Each structure stands twice: as structure tokens, then as C-alpha cells.
Amino acid sequence: MSNVINEQATEHAHHDHHPAKGFKRWLYTTNHKDIGSLYLIFSLTMFLIGGAMAMVIRAELFQPGLQLVDPHFFNQMTTVHGLIMVFGAVMPAFTGLANWMVPMMIGAPDMALPRMNNWSFWILPFAFLILLASLLMPGGGPAFGWTFYAPLSTTYSNDNTALFVFAVHIMGISSIMGAINVIVTIVNLRAPGMTWMKLPLFVWTWLITAFLLIAVMPVLAGAVTMVLTDKYFATSFFDAAGGGDPVMFQHIFWFFGHPEVYIMILPAFGIISTIVPTFSRKKLFGYASMVYATSSIALLSFIVWAHHMFTTGMPVAGELFFMYATMLISVPTGVKVFNWVATMWRGSISFEIPMMFAIAFIVLFTLGGFSGLMLAITPADFQYHDTYFVVAHFHYVLVTGAVFSIMAGAYYWLPKWTGNMYNETLAKWHFWLSLISVNVLFFPMHFVGLAGMPRRIPDYALQFADFNAIISIGGFAFGLSQLLFVLVVFKCARGGDKAPAKVWDGAEGLEWEVDSPAPYHTFETPPEIK
Amino acid sequence: MGKMRYALWLILVSLPQLALANSQFNMRKGVTDISNNVYELHMTIFIICCVIGVIVFAVMFWALIHHRKSKGAKPAQFHESTKVEILWTAIPFVILIAMAVPATKTLIAMEDASKADITIKVTGSQWKWHYEYMGEDIAYYSILSTPKDQIDNQAEKTANYLLEVDKPLVLPINKKVRFLMTSDDVIHSWWVPDFAVKKDANPGFINEAWTRINEPGVYRGQCAELCGKDHGFMPVVVQALPEDEFATWLADAKQEKANAAAADAALLDQTLAKEELMTLGEQVYMASCAACHQPTGMGLPGVFPALKGSPIVLGDVKDHIDIVLHGKPGTAMQAFDKQLSIKQLAAVITYKRNAWGNDTGDVIQPSQIQAAIDAAAEAN
Amino acid sequence: MNHAPLLKKLLLACLGMFAFAFALVPLYDVFCDVTGLNGKPSLERAVVSDTVNTERSVDVSFTTHAQSGAPFKVESQQYSVAVQPGAMREVKFSAKNTSNTDKIMQAIPSVSPGKAAKYLHKIACFCFDQQPMKAGEEIEFTLLFYVDTELPDDVEELTLSYTVFDISGQVVAKNDEAAKLIAN
User: Fold this and answer.
1) What is the largest CA-CA distance in chain B?
2) Cα–Cα distances in angstroms (integers) from residue B181 to residues A207, B188, B210, in the given order
3) How far is the alpha carbon of A152 from chain C, nearest alpha carbon, in Å?
4) Active-site residue flag, A350
5) pLDDT tens-digit profile of C46-57?
6) CB–CB of B100 and A327 under 8 A?
7) Which chains border B (3 or more CB–CB pairs < 8 Å)?
8) To pair with C94 at 20 to 30 A between CA atoms, which of A84, A95, A464, B260?
9) How far apart are alpha carbons A169 and A165 in whole angstroms?
10) Identified catalytic residue from A78, A120, A154, A174
């Protein structure tokens, strides 16, 4: 195997040993580190754009009454905010991290399919250009929620729906290509001796995520295709008049949608499982059970989708099945949390920024897990469903979960990427401001949700006013805090204290055996695995 | 430090109490047996989660405080323990079973197909609810009654801002009420938190829910499924009356319906003045049309067409009446023949043809509307 | 290293999952038939029952709803009937095209509670076909149905709802008569 890798590596090196200059370097690049950086920068840009839309939402909701935007535009904001954060910010960030780290972690010279890698990134900006451009057209962009339930997205949507469908197709193709690349890389390009049960956990979680992507992104493609044909080509998948059923849309969508949720959290588990041992200076507790827990979460994710649809009118047997299956997911998720705590237990813990984010992740993600468990309980879900309680729940798992893990990973590997240490003081400010504001932002949402405020409304009854004002203040503070992150990343890329090869004294893994910044080509000869 | 710890302790202790005590912070118990069960279930799961959370995080923070490098902690070498791992897989499993038992019981109690005393058909449409007392020949629309100037911040918002309607759904207490949900266009969801009833209204299908209200009162809820532009403006209001009062209300409603029919018949011979029609027309327009076509008649480009300068509004009266009466299939334009009286229809069409510079000068009389309704029958 | 074999497998898996999304459509219908999900009853003609349970009586009520923009007035002549499981029952519906153009009507049945859907068998129903209706025409339809003797004991009443759609614009002619009407 090593011979083969050698061969390929030399051939690759022959093509572009030195990066080209200027824009062409980025446009034509097949280098996993370049593409990783592109993904990460793109994701950060989308995070800010999607965040700006969240600011519009929170500004409108600051006080009861309609002040800034009309309800139709408000719906466009909630819809596009959701789409951008899911498909533009979180997923590309993880793909970027995978691009950068997976080859280095398994001792491979590059991703297995470098040209496809270039494509899978470069179609992505066009998908979002199309989506964002639709906002500027007559009638505006999609206004039916990121879940685009039929028939609101078919018969009752405007003609820009075609652009939405097209954009989602491109995002899907990009994700699928990225996932294929990750799988082929991990399966074929591991350095000799890098056996399955020696794989770093980030690689494991990404491998499982990639399989989830391959399983469900085509289903999403199918769903949007059906929306397109229902709207423009007189099919009746979701139209009762022609024998279809709008509830079937929800089944197909959530068959994609629930695994999608885990696509956005499994790599986060991998990052946290990498960072916690480093700063506890102790091996990860229960490596094998982590792998099994991740796999079982992935498998279970295929049989729980209808817990998003308890109010659609399901037979009681169905409701019971989906309730039990959903509750079951908390077992492997619990195992993960316990393992992290056990890793810290009797370690030698220090609190660098990545660790701070990781600890915040563990606490706040678990909080989101608890509200998830509450939501699984069908009778109670009738009260929670489609309220701010749900909004609180999924923002705890996606913002303080996925996004915090991405931040943790970024701080953890920034010195490896740039060769410079980040500015510790600014980073601390970023962490503490984010931590406080994110809770001011999302915690009171539990209360307004329980008190009966539905989600996706531009105006609300007076009893929700106080909390909404607090939530909005938290929102603005959280939004502004992220500008600090941009500053930290920018400064770190420009300069700073030189980082050693092994940035963190407790860190383990092949990525710490190469210089900082990581050379343009790494592991052209596969490393020895002990 | 001591003070801070004390303050933290105080917050930690008082938070759950706040959560328990005040419905502004928590789910409400509601006024039905089911909603009480749901509340109990919610609190049980919530407390179990809190206990687990406190234990897990106590262990974690203990480690964070005592096993710090800066305190000279040396890392231990252990990194697995089959016993412990089996234990913390098994214990959550047992806790889950403990949660599943009451949840299953409540769910099965909700699924009750026994005969109901009264059946209400609830139909959602963009953006109002329609209630039909099945077998009683009473049916009406229930529309948000909060004035536009309150929403636009030009007037003081009143107590039930956005949670008030012109005609609430009136129900008797202590009776099993069955709801049949359906929709006229997109998916809506009928929700009254005090009953713990939330059920989607799917176009083309019916869904069922039921309740038995224990106390008289007014109960407010909202549409819970995103249903387009004014999703936030279609509240649900239920007025629960003691049984005898409900019987009186039902009789009155029937009488009122007969009176309205008589009034409509009388209108056919009258010619109403343009001013009267314009005044009424503006009211009807603001309540029934302005959500889409906008108070200015300009519509929303690309979504809802403008009426100002519209070829239909400026064109043949017959076509204009036809589209208002029957709507336009496959669009948000609803049929208003059953929603508005012939007088309201005449007024609103007159208004549209004369407002915002649409100076056709046409005055439409109720008799013309009735003629259009009858025309189809005669056409055969 | 040759990546082609693995790449092919993964691409095939993607195509397979894309096809699976569409396979979910018929699968869903099967699933609905089995579980009565969404109260979606069969649109097929049922066979006549040969046993009658005279011990039990179930209320079957009817409701109709013309979808917005569908210019039809459809009403059952009885609001509710009590039937014995297994016994055939006839209910008349009057339907009228209230517009001044020819239309094609499609009625979609739905049964509540959902679990009762598969126990309501229709022998004759205007919902089996697209119904062409001339401007202003009034037609009387007959619904012939029975409730299965296997109907779960806890179901004391059930509702058959018809949602009526105007499909004149989107019709893919199912029967000749409809096709003729469009041609006119």
C-alpha cells in the first residue's frame, strides 16, 4: 500500500508543488489545505450573512408590533437564515475541517479525489448566490421556512421557488461530492498501520457523517425535485386533488432531516473528543464505546424522523414507536457525555480557549439534549411543538453545540494552519462574551415557548414582550461578539507568536508531527504508526 | 467570592421555583384532565432531566476545580472500564423506561374514539379559522379583531393584542367535544394550550382531536404551523360556557342566522347610496382583503397582485364579482361567497372600483351580487 | 491506488437513495393502507361483505368541503347514519357546479379517526372517478358503503369527509367523458 501512495504523491507533487499565485491558486487548487481554507472562509462569511438575517429577525421581535419589516419579508428572513446556517455555515465548516485535518490525521498526502474536491467547493458559492439573489427579485426569496412544507412551497409559493430548488440541488451535489471524497480518503489512504480502531475520533465521526450524507442528501434532492414538478409540471406528489398527500412531504423531508441533524453534530462530537483529552492530558475515556455510540446514533437517526410530525395525525402505534426510538437516542448520547466527563476526571486540566469552548459545548449541548428528550415525549410534544421551546432546543444543539465545537476546533488548529498563536486576550473576550450572550439569547426562549409563543411569527402577544426584548439584546450581543472572532482569525493569519509543531503539550496525533504552519504538502511518504 | 457563591446559590434555588410558580415561565396546567396530565408529565421529565444534569455537571465541575494542572494535578492513566461503561448505558435505559410509562398512559388516554357530545369542524385558511357546528347548521369565520393601527404602533396595544377575534368558538363545558380539522389551502395547526390540543389541519384530509373542558372561561391560542405571510395573525379564541348558557347561545345563533337571511332578502329590493357602500366597503376591505392586497391596494409585487389599476377591477363588473365570489383556484385568492354577506360583497367591490384612483364610478348593489350567485343556476 | 471501485459503489448508493426518495411515494401509500395513516382510505372499489354484526351499531357522519376556488356545492342528504358493521348502506349526495363554466370535480375521501379508515369500504362512490359537471349542473350521487365487522371496538363513531377539488385546469384525463369535456 505504501508504494502506491508514494507513487500517487509524487505524481501529485509533480503537478503543483508550489502554489500558484493570486486568484488562480484558489480557483484551480486541488490541495486539501487550500480547499479546507476556502471552505472555512466561505463558512465564516455565510455565518455572518445568516447572522445578519437573525439580527433582522431579532430587531423586529424586540418589541411587539410591526416596526421594521413586513411579515412576508420576515418569513424570508427566517427561511433563508435557516438555509444559510445549515447548508452554508455549519456543513461547509465541518467539510473545511475535514479537508484540512483528515488527510493529516491519517497520514495521507491529500484527499483521494483532489479535482472533485475543487469542484465540490467551487459550486457552493454559486448555490448561495442564487439563493441570495432570489431575495432581490419581485416576490422575494423563499418564505416557507427552511423545511419548505408543501403545499406552502408548491401551490402557494411564488415563482422564485425554482431558484430555491436549484440552489438546494447544487448544495446537495456539493455535500455528496465532499462526503464521497472523505470516505474514499479514509478507506483508501490511511497510512500503513493506521488500523480502524486507531483512527482519531474526528476521522471516525466524519466517516460516519459522510455515510449519512450519502444516504440522505439524495433524498433531499428527491424532495425538492418533487416540489419542483408539483409546482411547474402538474405532478401531484403532495396535492390531495391528484391523489397525493401533503403529509407525505413531511415524511420524505424528515427522513432526510433527522439524519441531517446528526450530520451537523457527529463531527462536533469528534472535535470535542479530540480537544478534551489534549487539555486533560489524559487519553480519551472509552474510545471504543465512543465509536459504537456514534454509529448507533447514526443508525437510530433513520428511525426517528416522525417525531417532528407528532401533530400531523398519526396512529397511536406510530407515535409510540417514534417516541420510544427517539428516547433511545439519549442512551448513546449520554454515553458520550459520560465519557468526556470521565476523560477529565483525574486528568491534569488546563483551560486554553479550545478547552473553554469544549466545556461550554458539553454543558450547553447536554442542555439541548435534555430539551430534546422532553420533546420526544409525544403528549408533551403536543404542547412544545412549533413553539419557541423547539427554537431554544435546536439552537442549543446547533449554536452552543455545532457552532461552539467549530469555534473550539478553529482555536485548536489555528496555530497549525497559520503557524501563529492567536491573540489570547481577544480570544478570551470572544469566549466569555459569546458564552454569556448566547445564553441570554437562547435560554429565555424556553420560557416564552412554554408560555405559548409559536415560532416563525413576526409579532406576538404582550405577555411575551419582556422576554423577547431580553432575547433580542442577547442576540445583538452574540452577533457582535462574533466580529471579535473574525478579528482573532484575521490577526492570527497575519502574524503573532510563532507556534511550535506540537502546539499543545497534551496533544496526540499525526497533525502535530508536521511543522506549524503545516507545509503545503504533508506525508508524501507515509508516516510510521506506532 | 463568598458573596458571589451565595448569590449563585440563591439564583439556583429560586429558578426552579419561579419556573413552577409562574405561568409566564412554564407550561400551563390548562383546564382539562388531559392538559393536567400533560403538565404533570412535563414536570416529571423536567425534574428528572434537572437531577441528571446536576449530578453529571457536579462531577464534571468537581474535576475541573480539583484536577487542574495549575493545582499540580498529575493525570491518571485509566481510559476504559467495561463495568462503568455498561453501568452508565444501563442506568439511563432504566430511567427512560420510567419516563415512557406515564408518557404512554397519557398518550393512550388522548386517543379516545368514544362518541362525542358535539362535533366541531375546524377549517383553517389563509389566515382565519372557520368553525362549523356539525349537524346544527351553524358555521362562521373567526378573524383577528386587533385593529391594524395597534399592530402598526399607532395606537396603544390592548390586553389581548393579537389574541382576540371577532367571533370566538363557543363550546359547552363538561361535554366531550370532538374537533375535525381540515384546511382550505396550506397546512395550519389549531392550538389551544389550555386544552393541550394541537392538531394540524391538512388540506384534503381530516384530522381528529377532542377535549372536555372543566371550567368556563375564555381560552386563547394561535396557529402553530407556518402558513404564509400572516401566520402570526390568526389566533384561536374559545369561549367555554356552562351547558345551559351554551344552549341559549346556540338558539340565539340560529335566530341570528335566520334574521340575517331575512335582511339579505330585504336588501334585494333596495338601492344603497354610494357613500354607505364605500364606508362599509373600506371596513370589509381592511378586514378581509388588505392582508394580501395591502391597505394601499398596491399588493406585494410577485406575491399578491395590485388592485389599483388592475384590469379585473377596472374591467367588466361581472368578471370582478365572479373572482371575488369564487376565488382563483391554486392561488391564495379565496372564494368569498360564503365568507361575506351580499351587502358586504357589494360594498367591498364598490370600494375597490372607486378607491386609490380606481375611479370607475361603479356602484354595485346587493341585488347584483345575488344575481351573479343565481346566474350559474339559470345558465343551465 | 485505484479509487474507482469504491467511488462507483458510493455513486451507485447515491443514485439508489435518490430513487428511494421516489420509491417512498408508493411505499407511503402501502403504509397508509396498512395503518390508516392520515385517514387515507382506499380509492378502489371494495368487495361486498357477507356477514353482518347485528349486535353493534356505529355512527357514520358525513362532511364535505369544497376547496377554495372550487365552485361546487356538495352536500350529503343525511348528516349522520347509524350502521351495523357488515351491512350495506346507501347515502345520497347532491352536487352542484355553481359556476357558469363547465368543470371537472374530484372528491378526495378522508376518514377520521385514522385507524378506522381501512374498515370503511366503499362499493360505489363518486370519488372513484373525476366527475365532469356542466355549468350550473346539479347531480345526485350515491355512496354505497359498509363498515367492516373487524372495526376496533373502541371506535363508536367515524366521519367520512370529502374534500372537493376543481381539477379542470390540471386534468390528465382518466376517463373518456372527462377528456371529451375538456375537448369541448
Assistant:
1) 99
2) 44, 9, 11
3) 15
4) no
5) 777 777 888 888
6) yes
7) A, C
8) B260
9) 6
10) A174
- pLDDT tens for each residue of chain A, 530 residues long: 344 444 444 444 444 456 777 888 899 999 999 999 999 999 999 999 999 999 999 999 999 999 999 999 999 999 999 999 999 999 999 999 999 999 999 999 999 999 999 999 999 999 999 999 999 998 899 999 999 998 999 989 988 999 999 999 999 999 999 999 999 999 999 999 999 999 999 999 999 999 999 999 999 999 999 999 999 988 889 988 888 899 999 999 999 999 999 999 999 999 999 999 999 999 999 999 999 999 999 999 999 999 999 999 888 888 999 999 999 999 999 999 999 999 999 999 999 999 999 999 999 999 999 999 999 999 999 999 999 999 999 999 999 999 999 999 999 999 999 999 999 999 999 999 999 999 999 999 999 999 999 999 999 999 999 999 999 999 999 999 999 999 999 999 998 899 999 999 999 999 999 998 999 999 988 898 87
Concerning whether A258 is annotated as a catalytic residue, the answer is yes
Chain C residues touching B318 at Cβ < 8 A: none
Burial of residue A332, with CB atoms counted within 10 A of its CB: 0-12 exposed, 13-18 middle, 19 or more buried: buried
Domain range for C17: 1-35
H/E element, C157: strand C157-166
- Which residues have C-beta within 8 Å of that of residue A81, sequence separation ≥ 6? A50, A53, A54, A57, A146
pLDDT at residue C174, rounded to an integer: 43
Given A32, A33, A58, A81, the catalytic residue: A81
DSSP category for residue A86: I
Cα–Cα distances in angstroms (integers) from residue A122 to residues A21, A99, A118, A178, A230, in the given order: 18, 14, 6, 11, 30
In angstroms, what separates the C-alpha of C101 from chain B's closest C-alpha? 8
Phi-psi region of C143 (alpha: psi -120 to 50; beta: other; left: phi over 0): beta
Question: Best residue in A5, A175, A186, A214 to probe C by mutation, most C CBs within 10 Å?
Answer: A214
Same domain, B210 and B249: yes
Pick from B261, B281, B305: which residue ends a domain? B261
Which long-range contacts link A85-88 to residues 24+ away (Cβ below 8 Å)?
A: A85/A46, A85/A47, A85/A50, A85/A398, A86/A146, A86/A260, A86/A264, A87/A127, A87/A168, A87/A171, A87/A175, A88/A42, A88/A43, A88/A46, A88/A47, A88/A49, A88/A50, A88/A124, A88/A128, A88/A171
Task: Collect the ranges in chain B with pLDDT lower than 50.
Answer: 1, 21, 380
Residues of chain C with Cβ-Cβ distance to A184 below 8 Å are 3, 6-7, 10
Can you give the CATH number for the domain in which C155 is found? Answer: 2.60.370.10
Domain extent at residue B363: 269-379
Q: Is position A4 within any domain?
A: no
Number of domains in chain C: 2
Structurally, how many domains does chain A consist of? 1
Distance from C-alpha of A100 to C-alpha of A520, rounded to nearest angstrom: 11
Task: Please indicate if any CB of chain B lies within 8 Å of the CB of C157.
Answer: yes
pTM of the shown model: 0.90
Residues counted in chain C: 184
Chain C residues with beta carbon closer than 8 angstroms to that of A218: 14-18, 20-21
Residue A508 lies in a domain: yes
Name which of B125, B164, B198 to mutate to probe chain A: the one with the most chain A Cβ atoms within 10 A of its Cβ.
Answer: B198
Residue pointed to by grid coordinates 369542524? B121
| Assembly ipTM | 0.90
Determine the Cα–Cα distance for residues C133 and C148; give it in Å rounded to an integer: 32
Number of folded domains that form chain B: 3
| In a domain? residue A507 | yes
Q: Is B213 strand, coil or helix?
A: coil
Cβ count near A107 (within 10 Å)? 23
| CATH number reported for the structural domain that contains residue B87 in this entry | 1.10.287
